[in-house]
Amino acid sequence: MNAGQKKNQSDHVAQGIHVVAKPIGPACNLDCAYCFYLEKQALYSAGEEFRMPDEVLSTFIRSYINAQPTPAVEFVWQGGEPTLLGIEFSKRVVELQRPYTGRKTITNSLQTNGTLLDDEWCGFLKQHDFMVGISLDGPREIHDRYRRDRAGNGTFDSVMRGLKLLRKHGVQFNVMASVARETAARPLDVYRFFKDEGVEFIQFAPLIERLPEDSTRKLGLSLAAPAVLDGQERNREVTPWTVVPEEYGDFLVAIYEEWVRHDVGKIFVMNFEWALNAWIGNPSPVCTHARQCGRSVVLEHNGDVFACDHYVYPDYRLGTILSDDLACMVENSTGSGFGVHKESALPEWCGKCEVLAACRGGCPKHRFMETCRSEPGLHYLCAGYKKFFRHIRKYLRVLATLLENGLPPSYVMDAVKGPLVIRQGQVVSSR
Question: Which residues contact 13 (CB under 8 A, 6 or more apart)?
Fold first, then answer.
């Protein structure tokens, strides 16, 4: 899918777009066993310099701001490990954004493994109000199982040092925790660890990777490319670290039960926020549980644009930021079927599912299973999603009622102790 250049700006839908920029591509100082991005180095020629040139950076910043129809433009910097570029690169980012600050509200987010953060880095991040996402999977024995450096050493101490520096400098941060097969067996150990460490914002990301087919091996990759929703037979054998569907559901349920009794309003688990958002009828803020996808594209270090972070493969290249119009590339991504197909290719069985509004079929990359009626396109985590969304409905009803009455969601913690009675917008009794 290559972007054409014939479409006029006036034809573009006035709808927000999202770009994840990877200024250092797949280059990283760690060697996490489950990472699906490290191996993308095989897609480039030997000796590739994984560093975004200034021409690409300046073109991207200008193009993204001009193409974004909404008042706010959120820049998201990922990798690989973007801090490998050094602080000077991020200073250049801020410098290039400065002329546009009067036209748009510009924000920056940095996703990092945290191992290279120091006082200078954290001072800069605080000064320029960067939101930092730090990758931390849980307590030492869980984190170090898969997140190791190039010498095979655990990285827990280095990450925790970075987290404490962020807190010391008052930098806003959240934690991205990957949930591997073994992690799913210890939900409360993970959750209570984050709670004890004072982490207020957490996102749990289930690990799902398939072993490759011949077509992927020919690219030099050891993990399967995305499942194509075309009805063809796909390899369904997953990696040893891939989480078991129902165990992932149990993991989320256990944490939710703890959270809903003790931590509502104090700790924010993004997976729970998304579920509530769906329950009250709002569009999903994340592509995984949105009706369609395709408006969140990826910019690689060399200027190439791809349809999605999970779709950085030759077949899903949209064009280059250096010569193709960004808005056109996004519209081609959605209009060519990548985005719409997520909804239209749902199995009939999913269309009748009681939790469809929350799930929306999940990420297309992981829809490589079949329904009980032998329909293709079922998400690998279907059983886990269904278990979780079904379980929390009773709490979502209470939370929605509280919001409708202008009451704090934290009142749900009283509701779990007994019936919550609301009269004229006031809680009368919880017993």
Answer: 331
